[in-house]
Design brief:
The chain has 10 helices and 16 strands. By secondary structure, it is of the alpha+beta class. It has 2 domains: about 230 residues, Hsp33 domain (3-Layer(bab) Sandwich); about 50 residues, HSP33 redox switch-like (CBS domain Like, Alpha-Beta Complex), CATH 3.90.1280.10. The strands form 3 sheets. The chain has a 7-stranded mixed sheet with strand order 1-9-8-5-6-7-14, with helices on one face. Strands 3, 4, 10, 11, 12 and 13 form a 6-stranded antiparallel sheet that branches. The two termini are about 35 Å apart. The structure holds zinc ion (ZN). The site of zinc ion has 6 residues, from loops.
């Protein structure tokens, strides 16, 4: 792939939001109180059709420090949300957050691991969470209370927080930034965050019609020379004319041509995006170990077995008495490095 235009940006350190602290990666498993094995789908239900919809395109404006990408999610979006009957407002918000996560993950040049975006609310909406891996595999879920009808986003989240996590997924250091939510929609929240924390000028447009989600991001790289001082203002102005419908329905080529036909835009080969949930029996085992033997034993005593459901894909993991015993027996064997692998 002829991506020479972006070659030099590889030497840049990945823009890691400053003020990030080390934290354990978030856990999204749910101890289920009722066994419902018949409803549990296979762990990965992604079907290999219509991939052209689930793609991320990078582009650059030649001779300017401006780069961007576009994304459109269909199968990935629908597969990620198929296990839960979300209120329409949350369905849209999750779609927008998914599009945003893909756009950001691509600009961060993650080598491994995953980018996790969370909206933590204190209103009816408790949590929106989207995870996008370095290889653009995505999953998403939401938690809410009560009725969500036509509230504004501010009403939904109350005094909420936006949390961005870079989880290397290899036992390495996890970075997390937490900021109060500023803005009344996902793109405003993200733009405000990017402006404050990364000092990279970023504009994000997001749209979701509950069938597909789409987005476009423009960024002005701070360390590139500006031959064309007006370019950032001009491209932002042109991009501002975009409609939700155009974002969702147009191909990347058509979209960029329509918006920037007088600019020198170079579009790179697309990357595919898929749904994939990274839950596993091993991760659930680790979670149960953290719960502790006494707690696990008491649940087994009460219910005969423990069923844990993944909040993202609803996969079920069942541990009976023997499994639970093995869990803690295995824990005793490697005395030192039990978190190493
Ligand atoms: Zn899962």
């Amino acid at each position: 792939m002829g991506q020479t235009a972006l070659g030099h940006s590889k030497s840049r350190p990945s823009p890691q939001p400053p003020g990030l602290t080390r934290r354990p990666p978030p856990n999204f498993y749910n101890l289920s109180h009722h066994g419902s094995h018949d409803k549990i789908p296979a762990m990965t239900t992604f079907k290999n059709s219509a991939l052209s919809n689930d793609q991320l395109h990078r582009f650059v404006f030649d001779n300017t420090p401006i780069r961007g990408n576009t994304v459109r999610l269909k199968n990935t979006y629908n597969t990620a949300l198929q296990h839960v009957n979300y209120p329409p407002l949350l369905k849209s918000a999750l779609g927008e957050l998914m599009a945003a996560a893909a756009l950001l993950a691509a600009t961060l040049k993650l080598e491994n691991g995953a980018l996790i975006l969370q909206i933590q609310g204190q209103g009816p909406l408790n949590l929106l969470v989207v995870e996008c891996s370095a290889s653009l595999e995505m999953r998403a879920t939401a938690k809410w209370q009560g009725e969500i009808t036509d509230q504004s986003f501010s009403e939904l989240v109350g005094n909420g927080h936006f949390v961005i996590t870079l989880d290397p997924k290899d036992g390495g250091q996890t970075y997390q930034g937490i900021v109060p939510i500023e803005g009344d929609n996902i793109s405003e929240i993200l733009q405000n965050y990017m402006q404050r924390s990364e000092q990279i000028e970023t504009r994000i447009w997001l749209a979701c019609d509950q069938q597909s989600a789409a987005g476009m991001l423009l960024q002005k790289l701070p360390d590139l020379p500006e031959h064309d001082a007006d370019a950032w203002t001009r491209t932002g102005f042109l991009a501002e004319t975009i409609t939700d419908d155009e974002l969702i329905t147009l191909s990347a080529e058509t979209l960029l041509t329509r918006l920037f036909h007088e600019e020198d835009v170079r579009l790179f080969d697309p990357r595919n995006i898929n749904f994939r949930c990274s839950c596993s029996r091993k991760n659930v085992s680790n979670m149960l170990k953290m719960l502790g033997q006494a707690e696990v034993d008491s649940i087994i005593e009460e219910r005969g077995e423990i069923e844990v459901n993944c909040d993202f894909c609803n996969a079920g993991y069942v541990f009976d008495k023997v499994d639970a015993e093995q869990l803690f027996a295995a824990d005793i064997m490697p005395p030192v490095s039990k978190t190493k692998h």
